[in-house]
Amino acid sequence: MAPTPFTAALLAAATLGATAPLFQPTHSPCSQKGELQLHGNFPLDWDDPHGHETIELGLVRLEAADKANRIGNLFINPGGPGGQVSGVVATIVQQPGIVDSEILNRFDIIGLDPRGVGLSTPVQCDIDASNKRVSRMPKTQAQFDELVQYNKAVGKSCREKTERLIDFVDTISAAKDHEAVRIAMGGEKANFLGLSYGSQLFSQYAELYPDSFRAMLLDGMVQHSQDEASNALIESTIYEATLKQFFAWSNSSADSPVQGQALDLEAVFKSVLAQADEAPIPAPGCDDVQCRSDVTAEEILFTLQGTLTMTSGWPGVLEALLEAQGGNATFISQAQPLIVGDAYTDSLLFGGRAIPCQDFSHAATTLAEVVAKQTQGTAFTPLTRGASQTYGIQTSCIGWPAPVNNPVKKNTYTGETPILMVNAVYDPETS
Questions:
Q1: CA 379 and chain centroid, separation
Q2: Which UniProt keyword terms apply here (predicted)?
Q3: Which DSSP string corresponds to 91-124?
Q4: Where in the chain are the domains?
Q5: HSE toward the beta carbon, residue 111, CA cutoff 13 A
Q6: pLDDT category, 379, cuts 50, 70, 90?
Q7: What are the phi and psi torsion angles at 377 (to 5°)?
Q8: Three-class SS string for 12-81?
Q9: What CATH number does the domain located at 5-119+171-225+409-422 have?
Q10: Which of the four pLDDT bands, split at 50, 70 and 90, describes residue 37?
């Protein structure tokens, strides 16, 4: 169901601690469920809040079903970076069973898309430049030079299409946006649920505004205090550990379609990579428009990580590997679609690059330094060869044109409200 949009002009307060001016929008729910969409203008640069440059922030709110016993606003962020939170709220409306009824009864669910993403002013880049195939694991100087030139070309196109916003999509700016929206919505203490990248966003929010929230739950903690080599190694290690759990699941779980068949799924996995090392595996269900018509071993490794996040998706991953072993990698290719020219959809990938490139320092900037990380990864994670979302982001940021506004540092939260932090034992991205 598409939410009904309405617009309200939001004036930024002189400081984020101020409570005025406020807006008083007329609620226009699109259904009896009380979902509505809101847009407003906020400063591009929070260091110059009275400047003339502004961006639009968009959110979707699902009002509490039991208004008499409403607790407050619950801001959510499912991760990314680049994830469209507005789409998650729309999914909750369509499938309310995925969220406990007590939450839906007592809280207004707020899906505020971070700057650069979704309903907010999105990062936009050239489609053809972005879809060019390059190796993120270069072995030669020529491959490394091609990667850097690719990054620079994409970055240049993003600056041309996104203009000054490309310099201000860091997580600190997004945290300040959340505080401004909290104030604009009445100033009551908010509640926060952050998953994966959402844990970084909201933990940095808590550091900035320790007295602005009632409760906070962070699940799947993203480290924003370690050097890039450590981050890459930690993530690739848990990716490999989760992959091994997936192999064991295939023979032991009743949910596995091959339970009891003595299938050596690790051997299947290695066979698929060996085939793809020789030549990309065809994906006949793809046409190089929505997804690539073949996949390389490197692409398989980077794509599978995200597919292992939810165990409910493991039967599909198993089927995809068996199909690929038979010479058809369509399922794998479809799991990593190409950029198609829809600003809302594409902001997941464009924002997913631009945001972390401003959040983390980039120490490895030469072929030797990048190969050293690959060597370390292969030594500790021979199955996945050091591949991970973090490693991919790190190599994507070499040559990026925007400054690092939010470099790594230890979080110094000083508030009195306890923050609940949880982590899964086997999360291929954030354990």
A1: 27
A2: Hydrolase, Signal
A3: HHHH-GGGS-HHHHHHEEEEEEPPTBSTTSSB--
A4: 5-119+171-225+409-422
A5: 24
A6: very high
A7: -65, -45
A8: CCCCCCCCCCCCCCCCCCCCCCCEEEEEEEEECCCCCCCCCCEEEEEEEEECCCCHHHCCEEEEEECCCC
A9: 3.40.50.1820
A10: confident
